[in-house]
Amino acid sequence: MKAADEGMSAGFGTIENTGDHDITVTSVTSPASTDLELHETVANESGAMVMREKTGGFTIPAHSELHLEPGG
Q1: How would you classify the pairing of strands 13-17 and 64-68?
Q2: For the chain (length 72 residues), average pLDDT per consecutive 10?
Q3: Are 9 and 1 in contact (CB under 8 A)?
Q4: What are phi and psi of 39, to 5 degrees?
């Protein structure tokens, strides 16, 4: 987690799916904040990289990992 006294912050890490079936992460919770969202970094219509909420969440294939990292 990146600490911030005010405004937005960010959390990064790796989520490992050790199961035999794909899973989809659709939300997150933390006692550190009441307002958390899943985002991805994508190019907008002018080509600039922007963050947007990840509709539908992130699917992690069986026996795979999802890396949540800056710019990802």
Answers
A1: antiparallel
A2: 78 94 93 85 91 92 93 72
A3: yes
A4: -130, 160
> CA–CA separation, 59 vs 72, rounded Å?
14
Residue 58 near residue 67, CB atoms below 8 Å: no
Main-chain phi, psi angles of 17, to 5 degrees: -100, 100
DSSP 21-64: S-EEE----BTTBS----EEEEE-TTS-EEEEE-TT-EEE-TTE
Comparing CA positions, the residue from 64, 43, 63 lying closest to residue 52 is: 43
pTM for this one? 0.76
Domain map (residue ranges) of the chain: 22-68
